[in-house]
Write a structure and sequence with these properties.
Layout: H1 3-59
């Protein structure tokens, strides 16, 4: 292997390692954004539907005492 080929392999390895680090960071940010969006959807759903769900549960007949 000549010097030029050795340098190409070294540069290629450096670029691959650099690209991997960028992907890991991007993945972390993507997961954080996804969790934030999911938390927002849950919060909005509970806020908008909370009273309706409570009314629905309150309108159900009481269970008989089995004990």
């Amino acid at each position: 292997m000549n010097v030029f080929t050795a340098h190409l392999h070294r540069i290629r390895g450096w670029l691959q390692a650099r690209d991997t680090r960028v992907e890991r960071g991007a993945t972390l940010v993507e997961y954080a954004v996804l969790i934030g969006v999911m938390a927002g959807v849950v919060l909005v759903s509970v806020t908008l539907l909370g009273a309706r769900i409570t009314d629905l549960i309150d309108s159900l007949p009481a269970m008989p005492d089995l004990g």
